[in-house]
């Protein structure tokens, strides 16, 4: 409002008497204007007494001089026009309205300090009202002061109140006084205006019917204290216009400042709001702190009990500068959300500090919405966002959140976004807690930059939802100095194309745990750096480089640093993945590891340094469908519990290098180099590669597999490493290359081809001793110029000794082609070499030692042998050899015929592992007679193999089966034949029958007659399913069994504590052995009688039963002999039975409402199978009738009667010991042969027994139960699940 103008034109009554007392008059009326203190005059009017009234049109109190108007004692004074108190600059006006019932009524406007000095006091219940408005300090020179004090004292306006319009105005409300306007209430209305108000004391109040502006265009100060109350209708503005400066202080318990609408602190100007010592401020609408560009607003809430409550949205630094400070136990409650730094020009700062200090918001929270926002939580304070939280939300924004100190916390129930499209930073330190229930994301949009730091011992971040570090923008998560981050959902690092995300975990005690799967570089570039003893647990697996455009890297470095997962790990799934493990770091994977999983995937893994390791309990694939590289160096180790495959699928390309002393690659099962794709493995400089079940090269057609010892095949030689395990050459292009610079390298382990002609062995450099069985190898071997092969075993296929190459040693080969040198024993040592064929080409040299008495180096081939002209045989006669007439030694024999000759001949050979050649001759070649040189049992390693070998031996040479075994090439193939022919599934099935009796007793009788002994009777039904395992013992193969069945029974109370009952049952199951694909399908019928006796705490239970079993068996007897390929599917059907019983004693001990009962149990079973004969081929067995007795004793503790509402919980734990025939011997016989005894696996004598059952009793007479059981021991494992129904009557 502009400066007010006085509207009267003439002054009257200027010479009135000094004091006009109206106390004795019924009333006094002034026709036009009443002027008190005209010019330099001094006039007073008093209106005293109930019923005494004064009226006037327009009133001037202190027009140019000093004027006083006093209304007291219940008197009233009424004007029909405006009243001016201190009208002219020289005027001084004083109005006092005091006493209950006393009143001053002005219509329309009351001016206090119009151009002069005005003072108005309402006290003792006095009331002042203005129909239109009240203005204090109307014009620049005006100074107005109003005091409203005492209960019932009031100042009211039918419209506005301006406190310091263009001049200075002050208002004091105390001791229960009240001030109210029906419209706007302004402090410092114009730029020159200064308005100051104090509302203090219980019951004191100031009410603005419309907006309350503190520092509208000028300066405004409001102090509310000691229980005073201020309320504004639709809004409060502190520092309203650009020139406005407003300050509001709310202090003391019970002191309030509130509005039904919006509160603006710094609208266009500067506003300060302080809430302290238990004061409270509330806004029914929004709260805006630093609302417009150029504005500045500060809100300070401090002290226990002090509060700020906002019902709608709160902006701190909306477009201007905003500050919110909560401290000392204060409470800030924001029913909706809030933003700090709302608009692009906005700068907002919020500080929440001190134990018990809280800030809570029910809606979305944005720190740096479009501008700059800073939130600090410290010294035990807490901030809670019950919806989403954004830090740096829109492009161009900057948001920073710092949570520091033990007890300090930030909680967000919704999703938290740090660097949504702007720049966001969230830091937790020194023991602070972050709880992000809905998950979080860093760097969401392409423009977003998100940073999260969790540092210091005890500092934690927990997220129940998804974690994204770099959705489409840039993100960094740093965990250090003992900080901890836990994500109970998935984590995605660099999710979108073009995004970057980095997770750094550093220092002992620092940890990152992700319960869901974790993806680094989904479509962007994601990285993990773990170092210096940090722990990273990615429970549900992780992937590096997920999609074709994704790039993911992980670095695990430093002693004690561990990256672990319970599930799979993908390095280069469809994109690019790099994993580096160094300086003692460890990566542990419980499931598969896949390097380059898809055709577009590129995966690189480097494990280097002593103590560094990569391990998986299961499978590892290098170049599964894409291009994968694994480097193991400088003493690092890589270990897989299952298969390792290099070059898995047709598009896969895998390369593995293992180098350096102490470096190792170990596959717990097979190590495959080239499964369907291309694989390459290089082992050098003292490193080791091993496949516990063997090493496959080029497993399938069109695959490629290269295994190099020393330097890579075709490249420069290097120091050798070692390879352990049987090598299987597959159907593709398989190469085993020895390219080393050692003179004494030895290779051990069997080599075999899985397809005819499969595999190539290349001796490229160095001297290699072959201490191996390679008879199963049918591919091609080459000894190249400068290389040497010393054979000390066997090597099948084709062996070519190229010019400049040398072969020496003894053993067995396939086809031999010689352009270089063959030197067998040497130095008087006799060497024997057998093979399929031999060809000595021109220029070749054959060196033999001949010691007489049929003793010489010899080569014996089953096919043809050719000796080209120009081939040389060098015969060395050892010193001291005595030759006798008739001594002969064959150095080369060819069953298929010999063409050409050396200058000398000699040498016997071995045809098979059981047969040799004795003297026998042909026209062109000397032979030895073929005879059995060792018993079949000599090749056996186990009791069952020896027994089967004896049975086969007894058939005699006329038997085709005997001959098939006799011609087996090696002991390993003979053992395979013995195992195939033993028929160990039959005693195994009988053993399971005996052991299952215990299982059936537990299923049928478990908790059947415990408790409730007084029920007249009951009927019950129980169904179960179970599976079991009897581990292999080195003699017999592991047995797996399962069964599913049902029991139906009932029992009655016959007196005292005795119950008796009976049950019948039926089940179906099977017993499976992996040896010979053997199985026995078993169906059983059961009958059981049982009793239960309660002897006052001692309970005796027992029963006897009979089981009738039908068994159907099938097994495959298969092995390949040079003379006969045996593959027979043998079957039989026969009967079996089990007589079994049990006795159980327990003693009940009450523990509260429950009971514990020590118990002892003995179970006896006699399993019998009838005699039968298999059908299906010459390997069919006749099996005699057999019985297997088994006694099982169990001692332990039961728990009964644990009630959980309508549910009862019971269980037991015990230790079981077995007596009797655990290996269930059976007597078998091949047709035409002698009987032999075969044993099943010894299942172990001791086992732990665990049972747990839950019964639901929907009624007193009916219950439904479910139970599980486990028997586990040193040789067996049995699991059982059951459900039951029981009805009592």
Kindly describe this structure.
It contains 4 helices and 123 strands. The strands form 7 sheets. It has a 45-stranded mixed beta sheet that branches. With 1289 residues, it is mainly beta. 4% of the residues lie in helices and 56% in strands. α1 (943-953) crosses α3.
Estimate the strand proportion. over 45%
Number of strands: 123
Tell me the overall shape: elongated
Helix run count: 4
Distance between the termini: 95 Å
User: pLDDT average, as an integer?
Assistant: 89
Based on CA atoms alone, the radius of gyration comes out at 50 Å
Structural class: mainly beta
Helix content: under 10%
Largest sheet: 45 strands, mixed
Unreliable spans are: 1-27, 881-887, 904-909, 916-921, 926-930
Brief sketch in words of this structure:
4% of the residues lie in helices and 56% in strands. It is built from 4 helices and 123 strands.
List keywords for this structure.
single chain, 1289 residues, mainly beta, 45-stranded mixed sheet, 29-stranded parallel sheet, 4% helix
Annotate the secondary structure layout.
Elements: E1 19-21, E2 27-29, E3 33-36, E4 42-48, E5 53-56, E6 58-61, E7 66-72, E8 76-79, E9 83-85, E10 92-98, E11 103-106, E12 109-112, E13 117-123, E14 127-130, E15 133-136, E16 143-149, E17 154-157, E18 160-163, E19 168-174, E20 178-181, E21 185-187, E22 194-200, E23 205-208, E24 212-214, E25 219-225, E26 229-232, E27 235-238, E28 245-251, E29 256-259, E30 262-265, E31 270-276, E32 280-283, E33 287-289, E34 296-302, E35 307-310, E36 314-316, E37 321-327, E38 331-334, E39 338-340, E40 347-353, E41 358-361, E42 365-367, E43 372-378, E44 382-385, E45 389-391, E46 398-404, E47 409-412, E48 416-418, E49 423-429, E50 433-436, E51 440-442, E52 449-455, E53 460-463, E54 467-469, E55 474-480, E56 484-487, E57 491-493, E58 500-506, E59 511-514, E60 518-520, E61 525-531, E62 535-538, E63 542-544, E64 551-557, E65 562-565, E66 569-571, E67 576-582, E68 586-589, E69 593-595, E70 602-608, E71 613-616, E72 620-622, E73 627-633, E74 637-640, E75 644-646, E76 653-659, E77 664-667, E78 670-673, E79 678-684, E80 688-691, ...
Parallel strand pairs: 1-4, 2-5, 3-6, 4-7, 5-8, 6-9, 7-10, 8-11, 9-12, 10-13, 11-14, 12-15, 13-16, 14-17, 15-18, 16-19, 17-20, 18-21, 19-22, 20-23, 21-24, 22-25, 23-26, 24-27, 25-28, 26-29, 27-30, 28-31, 29-32, 30-33, 31-34, 32-35, 33-36, 34-37, 35-38, 36-39, 37-40, 38-41, 39-42, 40-43, ...
Antiparallel strand pairs: 96-97, 103-106, 104-105, 107-108, 107-123, 108-109, 109-110, 110-111, 111-112, 112-114, 113-114, 114-117, 115-116, 116-119, 117-118, 118-121, 119-120, 121-122, 122-123
Helix pairs in contact: 1-3
